[in-house]
Structure formats: C-alpha cells, structure tokens
Recover the amino acids of this structure.
C-alpha cells in the first residue's frame, strides 16, 4: 500500500509575475556572466604576460629566482582564471536557458536552467567553504608561528 501525500498530485504553476522575476534575473545574470568572461579574458592575458615576462623579471631582479617567481605567479593566475571560469559558465547557461524557456514556454528548458543555477550555487558554496577553511588554517599557522617565535622579536 502506497502512502500518497497531498503534494504528489500538486502541479507547480509559474505565474506571470514569477516569469517576470525570472526574466529580470536572466538579464542580470547574463550581464554578470558577460562581464565575468571579459574580466576572465583580461586575467588570462595578465597570466600569460606574467609567464612571458618571467624571464625578463628574472634578469631584472638579478637571478633565476625572479624569473621563477614571475612564472609561478603567472601559472597561479591562470589557475585562478580557469577556476573562476566554471561558475561564470554556469551563470551564463542559467541566463540563456531561462530566456529560452520563457520564450518557448518549455518546462525542459526551465528545468535545465534551474540545474545550472543549482550548479552555480553549489560551486560557490563549496568554494566559499574551502576559502573559510584556508583562512582558519592560515590564522592557526600564524598564531603558531608567532607563539614559536616567543620573545625573539
């Protein structure tokens, strides 16, 4: 025997007001995604510039370590750009699929857009947790380093 809840036969309706909210959210998320892509492109150019100028920095700073640090910063910068590309892409997909869903009135398109929005927030939530843990770890390391130095200052 199956237990059916009242929600099993419930069908979600999207009102015109909800559609307008989605339309505005899609426009703003599209704007933010495009701005994000522009800044990611500029960041990638900066990262490649750091890689290319790494050897020039090494000779200007007097040794291989200067060039190495420029290359390390360039690689780090490119990794950050690659990591930031993922949520920007999810945001763009949410925007375009939501606009498409509202124009075509297709539930499948709206479902796909909501999937991208969920992925965007999941990525940002996990990333935020990682950053918080890293901050706490750095604070603990800093306090430990300060305590180990004791009165040597």
């Amino acid at each position: 025997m199956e237990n059916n809840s009242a929600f099993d036969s419930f069908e979600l309706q999207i009102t015109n007001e909800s559609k307008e909210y989605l339309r505005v959210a899609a426009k703003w998320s599209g704007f933010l995604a495009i701005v994000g892509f522009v800044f990611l492109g500029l960041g990638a150019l900066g990262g490649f510039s750091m890689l290319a100028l790494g050897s020039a920095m090494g000779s200007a700073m007097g040794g291989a370590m200067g060039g190495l640090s420029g290359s390390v910063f360039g690689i780090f910068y490119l990794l950050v750009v690659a990591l930031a590309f993922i949520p920007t892409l999810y945001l763009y997909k949410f925007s375009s699929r939501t606009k498409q869903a509202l124009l075509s009135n297709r539930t499948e398109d709206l479902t796909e857009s909501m999937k991208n929005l969920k992925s965007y927030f999941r990525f940002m939530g996990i990333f935020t947790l990682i950053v918080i843990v890293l901050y706490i770890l750095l604070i603990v390391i800093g306090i430990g380093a300060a305590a180990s130095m004791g009165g040597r200052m």
